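Quick one: structure tokens for this chain, please?
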Amino acid sequence: MNPLAGHLLLAHPGLGDPNFARSVIFLSAHDEEKGAFGLVLNRLLDRQLPDLMPDEELGPLERCPIYFGGPVATNRLSFAEIVWDASTNSVRIDSNLTMDTARELMLLRPETVRAFVGYSGWSEGQLESEMKSGSWLVQPATPLALTWEVGDLWRRLVREHGPHFTLLADEPEDLSLN
């Protein structure tokens, strides 16, 4: 059972955890008894794949954007294809691509392929507990969430939760600058 799989988790504006502050996470698996798995969509890293894999023949993957996927297994690099599936009105993610498949997809649909350092994971009941404490806003994924600039993604999605959240989303990250 995947009740929240395919949804976006938006960090509540008051969430102070630096791993997740102002994060947008695509939740690709969720089960109250088994836990949850997701990838942060709006933390583009200032790195290139040749920096991380200098001995690999990367070909078209040299241009693949690299994201911070989450604080778990940050020594792990994975490739994913993320696309909007109009036939099901949902986001489809294949988060376990081989390098060869990622190379092929970079030639066919480069805008859909991303590399991730780490991932976001929750153990049994952990995400539900965080949601009860108000750490996350949940909403269905939309095609716009995949096309908006990553730097503005969190703010734009949080604003969709109403006027109160619009005010919170527009606050500076460092309130001392206000």
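The chain has one domain: 7-177.
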